[in-house]
Amino acid sequence: MKRHLLTLAAFLLAVVAALPSATATASDVFPDVALQGKISPEQRQYLGVPDGDIRLSDINADFVFVEVFSMYCPICQHDAPGVNDMFARVLASAEADKIRFVGIAAGNTPFEVAFYRKKFGVQFPLFEDPDYTAHKAVGNVGTPAYYLVDLRDRRRAILVFHEGEIKDKDAFLKNVLGLVGK
Amino acid sequence: MRRALLFSLPVLGLLAWGLLASGALAAHMETFDPGRLKPTDSTLKVKVGDAAPDFTLPAISGGTVTLSDYRGKKNVVLSFVPAAWTPVCSDQWPGYNLALDMFHGLDAEVIGISEDNIPSQAMWVKAMHGLDFPVLSDFWPHGKVAGALGILRSDGMAERAIVIIDKKGIIRYLDVHDINSRPDLGGIIHELEKLAE
């Protein structure tokens, strides 16, 4: 009987482990938020956007990976090196031309965004959202929140949504690159 | 055996739920949302240029912290927050913690104070993944320090306030902030830079 119980326990634990860590958003379309803040000419080139005000839909790529974060959020701070690593691995992948990374700093001022960028050496463009306009538009999600948005048909369909720490970044990135490579 | 298996199912189910629940707790800190509050609800009793009233308060790390011990050594940034386990407060001190090098580079120490008691503060700070600056309890006699500064609200919470005290013990900056929002880190750093000039 002990063997059956152990098998049953193992089965239940496997079920728990296999449950998805992400939940779907209320909306499956990412809002066409304004991306506020100064970015470098190189970052503009990376996003394929002209000088001046830009919106998410202006990004010239098939997919955009969006991180909604806050300088103040301890999980975002903890996740920052891992997100940098994902960015570097995407750049080095076969899908590098198809996907662009952006960060939206919920409730953060230009000073706070600049500090976070410098503290963690973030290379991809980070945008400020001091009055939470973009954060409200995406449904006041907990930070960090991560999205893979499909821009191919300009509908901005959300293909991936994950709220909170990404515990298995290898699996998460594999899923993202798999969707981008389809 | 079937009875034993049936009996074990709920137990194993609880085990599985427990694993899920603890994972969720680690990833998302649950907070109590007090809703929108009256922006300020107190009358300052001090002003810029005054000597800061001295105090000694218990710290979550054990022992006590006395403000005048910093005199001649460090500028002090007192960060008063209204209540543990509330959303804006939980999203304020981890940012100051990340920027501690910047504060220290400007010869300043951050001290966090709330009107909560030590056990509540300690578990809250733990849930915020820890803080490397002193967190002090102004719980008893309730609100004595906040009251002396004139930043104790009528409900017993402190205002969300920043008080910068220079090395001579003089108040150089006061920001009794809208309790519903977080002061900009840049503004605090800018005030410390002015002290360094």
Automatic annotation (TrEMBL), chain A:
Keyword Signal: yes
Iron listed as a keyword: no
Signal peptide: 1-26
SUPFAM superfamilies attached to this UniProt entry: Thioredoxin-like
Stretches assigned to the Thioredoxin domain: 18-181
InterPro entries, per the entry: AhpC/TSA, Thioredoxin-like_sf, Thioredoxin_domain
Pfam families reported in the protein's UniProt record: AhpC-TSA (PF00578)
PROSITE patterns (alphabetical): THIOREDOXIN_2
Keywords of this entry: Signal
Protein's name according to its UniProt entry: TlpA disulfide reductase family protein
Species: Pseudodesulfovibrio methanolicus
UniProtKB/TrEMBL annotation, chain B:
SUPFAM superfamilies associated with the record: Thioredoxin-like
Organism expressing this protein natively: Pseudodesulfovibrio methanolicus
Keyword Cell inner membrane appears in the UniProt entry: no
UniProt name for this protein: Peroxiredoxin
The organism's place on the tree of life at top rank: Bacteria
Signal peptide: 1-26
Signal among keywords: yes
UniProt keyword terms in alphabetical order: Redox-active center, Signal
Pfam families in UniProt: AhpC-TSA
All copies of domain Thioredoxin, residue ranges: 46-197
